[in-house]
Amino acid sequence: MDFEQLRAFYTVAQTKNFTKAAEMLHVVQSTVTTRIKQLEEKVGKPLFTRDKRSVKITQAGLTLLPYAERILKLANEALNEVAALQPYEDYLSIGSLNSIWTSILEPILKEYHYRYPHIAISTKTGHSADVIQFLLDNVIQIGIVYVPPSLPNFEVIPAWEDEIVLVSPPDDSILAATRVDARELRNLPLLFMNWGPPFDEWIRQTLPRSFVPKLHVDKAELAIDLVKEGLGVSLLTRSTVKADLAAGTLKEIAIVGSRPPKRSAYIVLPRDKKNKPSVEKWLGLMQEFGYSV
Fold first, then answer.
1. Is residue 54 located within the same domain as residue 168?
2. DSSP-derived 3-state class of residue 76
3. What is the pTM (predicted TM-score) of this model?
4. What's the domain count of the chain?
């Protein structure tokens, strides 16, 4: 498929307006119309229905849209990667979760940057599923995730285990006790963060089926801020709260009885990229920092 045709299709799909699409693409409207018609001839179906007032995407257009988006994204990533190599000897792109970047990988990234000035680096952030998709799309060479994929031609390396701990504000405004039975979590103002399997299984076994958290968050940093402000307690990985526990801005409450399972993290990379020099250097540096590779 022609990239310009796909770009015109994607832009019209986003704007629902041929005139606005032409302005964004810096071409005249007739050029956009021609590119759409040429693409429709290739796919054999209309991609839009249009009248004087509106432009609507068809079912064929909706089917094509995610593929067009991925093709254009991959083309842009490829151009960026090639461009990045010009003043450098090698290139490395790594993807992970925001909580892993801030609590684990940031010091490794800094050391890599200083130690290997001739290697260009780019980072990607998303949930585990996003990072796996980055790998499948060849956008990144290394992914570090909490949920290990089962994919052919990819190597999955257990890197570390992270303990899940209960934290509260440092004063006694929420909880004065220094320990709590796991079954009593139902009676606490729990700011709930789901750490995925097997944590969600432990929650189902520990708390009643009727339990519904009043506040459910999907970002560890947000949970930390809310706990500090006194909204409740939260179950978070030790790596994300390590600095706050040391500084005294959070307090750890020991869990008695059934304890949360540890959270495992995994390095995922294509087998044919493992011997790439920039990848080898990153894995070696992670090993220096004490992680399994």
1. no
2. helix
3. 0.69
4. 3
Pairing of strands 263-270, 142-145: antiparallel
Contact status, residue 117 vs residue 287, Cβ threshold 8 Å: no
- Do 51 and 194 sit in the same domain of this protein? no
Encoded amino acid at 281, one letter: K
Q: How many CA atoms lie less than 13 Å away from 69 in the CB half-sphere?
A: 9
12 and 26 in one domain?
yes
Q: Answer whether the bond into residue 198 is a cis peptide, omega within 30°.
A: yes
pLDDT digits (tens, 9 = 90+) for 193-236: 998 888 989 999 999 988 888 899 988 999 999 999 999 999 99
CB atoms near residue 113 (< 10 Å): 11
Query: Do 140 and 179 lie in a common domain?
Result: no
Which residue type, as a one-letter code, is found at position 84? A
User: Using CA atoms in the order 227, 233, 238, 244, what is the torsion angle rounded to 10 degrees?
Assistant: 30
Supply 185's token pair. Answer: 């979590």
Which amino acid is it at 3?
Answer: F
Report d(CA 223, CA 125) in Å as an integer: 18
Q: Is 144 left (phi over 0), alpha (psi -120 to 50) or beta?
A: beta
| β-pair partners for 125 | 96
CB atoms within 10 A of CB 191: 23
Please tell me whether residue 8 adopts helix, strand or coil conformation. Answer: helix
Amino acid in the structure at residue 183: R
